[in-house]
Design brief:
The protein has 333 residues and is α/β, with parallel strands linked by helices. Helices cover 44% and strands 12% of the residues. The strands form 2 sheets. The chain has a 7-stranded mixed β-sheet with strand order 3-5-4-6-7-8-9, sandwiched between helices. Strand 6 (144-149), helix 4 and strand 7 form a beta-alpha-beta unit. It is globular, with a radius of gyration of 26 Å. The chain starts with 6 loop residues before the first strand and ends in a 5-residue tail after the last helix.
Length: 333
Amino acid sequence: MPRPPATVAGLAEVTPGRHDRPFLEGVRERRLAMTACGRALSVAGLAAAAVALDRIRRLPPFEPLPVTPRSRGGSGTPLLLLHGIGGTWQLWRPVLEDLQARHDVLAVTFRGHAGAPPLGDAATPEALADAVEEELDAAGLGPVHIVGNSLGGWVAIELARRGRARSLVLLSPGGAWRHQYRMDAVASSIGAFNRVLSRVTGRSVTIARSPVLRALLLAGQVAHPSRMPADVLELHVRVGNDMPGVPPLLETVTKRQVDQLPADHDYPIRLVWGRADRVIPFGEFGTAMLERLPGAEVIRPHGLGHVPMTDDPGLVTRLVLEVTRAVDGPAPT
């Protein structure tokens, strides 16, 4: 008895005959067309790179920013600014002038980050909060308005728990999540990003002045890469291999989540989470954080990424000053 033809997924296997030649010829033509298209795209990519490099040469130079551990300026009630992991206080530069018009602003760089002292043996948000408290004491400051972004938001929560907050504004704060594997993936991606920075420090000016390269580097961090000031971006690329505190912090921040603040706190809390945050999206991370902030006000602006200070400095300034004005009252004329 003859054996039935072999089948794959329930279909008989047939040998191509003369009636199948038009079909096969069509497949070959499509493959040739795709190959030609790929070559054309490669040529177009090279041309675009050449145009971008030409634009770099024509962009005006800028003065590199110094690497310092802190900034203080302005007058009024004290306001503390805390950056995210792998950053420095310079990330607040786009909003500094407007905040200093109403407040005595202290922006610090975390220990273990470029320009600051070493982190020490304990690589935890609580240890960072200890160091920031030392900064506040050295500056003669008691309770302060606190604004924290990412890891800086977690440290801000710890400072508020210790009675150091007049108000609390949190911009996509870290410290809470729904699923452990998502947090592990975030830590891995941040680590990979910082390893990339450490390998391109010698190209900091080129990257900062190139629209194409800054878009590739910042696409996951901000909603509008073109809006980050060139000098701020150049500094953070330049110091990419001077962040010894980042790896140990990434190890510890995935091990446990931030504790809930007490419900009877006497300061307002505003939680700001941009809808364009692709690092820690609100659905996975923001909702979990909200459960730890009793009585917090939530604002979900469009057009803000994970590091929102450069995406829309005016909006971020307004969101902060609305809270501080509510506590301090109107500024004297």
